[in-house]
């Protein structure tokens, strides 16, 4: 009896973990190319959806590049912020940025000339429910989340979750 209750608790815990994994996507900027000159980041952004809770990962050679968070005007002009701060620029070479709020986010490389050569990225972060639905009383289905937003689990996340479920079940029986 006790082990049955334990089983239910474990299954519920797994469901909670799985649903949180399913909601977050890790976006590796430039995919395998990473953050460098010669990648069209406008092209990279095309067709992608960035949601609050997702992460943005910049991979690059930190002897040559960095990542400045800037505003829209600085982005447009390839102009750096007037002062550096503790977390700006990022320069680890593997920077993981949590997308915590909706709205546009702008990033440029601070090495002279690199932004002009295309090391600039702008994304639009949406709240998980998507853009505010326009009132459409005759079409209630418009309020449902799109399938692409509902199924965002990456293959590695599924594999990791599956192996976790397997090892928990294995230790129970
Ligand atoms: C990058 O891609 C965008 C969108 O496809 C395109 O409009 C733009 O001209 C490209 N930029 C360069 C420098 O090729
Ligand atoms: C570059 O990356 C290495 C390894 O992550 C780190 O130790 C070093 O401090 C970084 N350099 C700068 C300028 O942040
Ligand atoms: Cu650079």
UniProtKB/TrEMBL annotation:
Keywords: Copper, Disulfide bond, Electron transport, Glycoprotein, Membrane, Metal-binding, Signal, Transmembrane, Transmembrane helix, Transport. It is found in: Membrane. It is a single-pass type I membrane protein. GO terms for cellular component: plasma membrane. The keyword Disulfide bond applies. Residues 1-24 form the signal peptide. Its main location: membrane. The keyword Disulfide bond applies. This is Phytocyanin domain-containing protein. It comes from Acorus gramineus (Dwarf sweet flag).
